[in-house]
Amino acid sequence: AAGEASLLEHFRRAAELDPASCAAWHNLAMVHFDHVRCTCWRSEDELGEHHRHHPDPGATDTEERVVAALECLFRCISLRPSSSPTGHTQQDILTLLTLAFEHGETEGAAAALSRGLADTPAETWLAVVPQVIARLGSESERVRTFVLSLLSTLAERHPQGLVYPLTVAATSPLRAQATGAAHVLAHLRRGRDVLVEQAQLVAAELVRASCLWSEAWIDGLETASKAFYTEGDDAGCVRALLPLHEALERGAQTPAEGAFVREFGGAL
After folding, report:
1. Residue 243: strand, helix, or coil
2. 127-147 confidence digits (pLDDT tens)
3. Rounded to two decimals, what is the model's pTM?
4. What is the per-residue pLDDT across 199-249, written as a single tens digit (0 to 9) for each?
5. What is the spatial distance between Cα 75 and Cα 123, in angstroms, rounded to a whole number?
6. 3-16 burial, b if ≥16 CB within 10 A, otherwise e?
7. How far apart are CA 196 and CA 181, in angstroms?
8. What is the rounded distance in angstroms from the CA atom of residue 214 to the CA atom of residue 177?
């Protein structure tokens, strides 16, 4: 559209005239970002199944706009002081992550993310660690590579800020997420083994305190029953109950667990 082209030209010119202007780079990035989102929505809503079997010739243009938006956002973020993040900084970071997670599988976007990550202070990402860890299970290999690289960099420079959320993620039922978190924790263990061990101990005790054996067994029995009787999945039934039986075999370690064993241990 003519209006978008005019905006793009004005903001690009503003960034050229004042390369240190956060506002210029932010506005330029948002023009590219809005174009990408509108193009994707149009492709999904209007083209539907036909688009999936007959790719849009504008896909190359979309990838170029994704790369341009990423570069502008990285530039904007790097110009803002990481020591005093603002709402605008958070908006830029979340917008960048949205692009990374939705379009990071393309070669151009992956390269832009790699370059930007190398030039951005690690402290920038501390506020969005949960969002980043949640993407450890991404289906895109390039997105997973970006996430692992970012988390490894953060873990090396700010181990105390990463060790607990990574420890929790390593116990996730999602295999890809648990594997990715374990990979970063293994990297973190180099020289910081005691820190990781302590975090794992705290995480295990918090889980023990937040989920009593009676609650865990109710949930496990419901899952196992559904798997066996409704889905006919014998292996799924065993998977649901095996960790609970292993915990029983290890023995009670708290008064509440001891009371549970005395009341239900024989039947179970």
Report:
1. helix
2. 899 999 999 888 888 998 899
3. 0.70
4. 888 888 887 777 888 998 999 999 999 999 999 989 889 988 998 999 899
5. 15
6. eeeebbeebbebbe
7. 12
8. 27
